[in-house]
Amino acid sequence: MTGTTEKKQLLHLVFGGELSDLTDVQFRDLSALDIVGIFPDYASALTAWKAKAQQTVDNAHMRYFIVHMHRLLDPKATGL
User: Whose CA is closest to 68, among 52, 46, 35, 50?
Assistant: First the structure.
């Protein structure tokens, strides 16, 4: 053991795309989704999300999302 404690990975996916309607999360073109990346924690995912959201602020139909992948990978875990 090295004596260092490694922070638990809590994977988050950041992606976005153009919505066909502002009242629902229905993407106009699934093949055009922008997969920003997978991040090891919420803070870094939020930073990436903010950057992408700011770049597309002029397009009201463009939306970016953060998916808590760690919750999908381990649904029995609580408190995460």
Answer: 46
Contact predicate 30/38, CB 8 Å = no
* For the chain, percent of residues with pLDDT exceeding 90: 72
* Residue-number span of the structural domain to which 22 is assigned: 10-33+61-71
40 in any annotated domain? no
- Do 66 and 14 meet the contact criterion of CB atoms below 8 Å apart? yes
Instruction: Say if pTM beats, i.e. exceeds, 0.90.
Output: no
